[in-house]
Design a protein that fits this description.
Blueprint (H helix, E strand, L loop, with lengths): L8 E5 L4 H12 L3 E6 L2 H9 L4 E4 L5 H15 L4 E4 L10 H29 L2 E5 L12 H21 L5 E7 L8 H8 L1 H9 L9 H12 L10 E4 L7
Helix pairs in contact: 1-8, 3-4, 4-5, 6-7
């Protein structure tokens, strides 16, 4: 049985490629009116051509641009039923630049989009789905800034859920493992750092990396009536990667 989001208004922050793109298209194919934002204008144009109702080039590190996207999207779609906070600055190393990217995009874009959408979500008794990572569930020597901000998103998801339950708003998160798609981090690692790629691959029991659509399906579930009694949870989508 497929999902039916006919008549629902869905906002996807960071929707131009990879997991965000799969989420935006998943909602659109399920009948929702979708708005997506990101910095990548070409990716957004492709989404528009595939049935996404509204797109807006947006620097998600810029508070004013985040608020402007939410308000324009809500006006265009007629409200907001679902907000998906998917954007990441991919700040990896333990450096000023890495921490700034993660805090500005992964954290503050999530906070700012949630705040901007809240009046609309209250009116609709809608829900929020945040994208975090399995990196946020433990320490990381290779990507300490990324892991730390993703852990923050897991904690913030639970805090949001506790605070917004009185308004009838559910908040959950998906924590993907290693996901491969054209132009993505793991496709680049396969070419540039095959030792790392093969080490990660060897740790996934199913013998392959995940696909964006496999994460999108869980995001759609969390936004659907099937998850109506689920809130404050982070669902791992990693093909067993954390089991090894």
């Amino acid at each position: 049985m497929g999902f039916d989001f006919t008549g629902k208004r869905v906002l996807v922050a960071g929707g131009s490629r990879g997991i965000g793109r799969a989420i935006a298209l998943g909602f659109a194919k399920a009948g929702a009116k979708v708005s997506a934002c990101a910095r990548g204008a070409d990716g957004l144009a492709a989404l528009k051509a595939e049935g996404v109702a509204h797109v807006k080039p947006t620097d998600l590190a810029d508070a004013g641009q985040v608020a402007a996207w939410v308000e324009e999207a809500a006006a265009t779609l007629g409200g907001v039923d679902v907000l998906v906070n998917n954007a990441s600055g991919f700040g990896m190393g333990d450096s000023e630049e890495g921490w700034k990217k993660g805090l500005d995009v992964d954290v503050m874009a999530t906070v700012r989009a949630s705040h901007a959408a809240l009046p609309h979500l209250r009116a609709a008794k809608g829900c929020i789905v945040n994208t975090t990572s399995i990196s946020g569930l433990g320490p990381s020597v290779r990507t300490p800034a990324y892991a730390a901000v993703k852990a923050l998103i897991i904690n913030y998801t639970a805090s949001q859920a506790a605070a917004l339950a009185k308004d009838g708003i559910r908040v959950n998160a998906v924590a993907p493992g290693s996901i491969e798609f054209p132009g993505g981090t793991w496709e680049k690692r396969r070419a540039e750092d095959p030792a790392l790629y093969n080490r990660i691959l060897a740790g996934i029991p199913f013998g392959r990396l995940g696909e964006p659509e496999e994460v999108a399906d869980v995001a759609l579930f969390l936004a659907s009536p099937l998850a109506r009694w689920v809130t404050g949870q982070t669902i791992v989508v990693d093909g067993g990667q954390m089991l090894s």
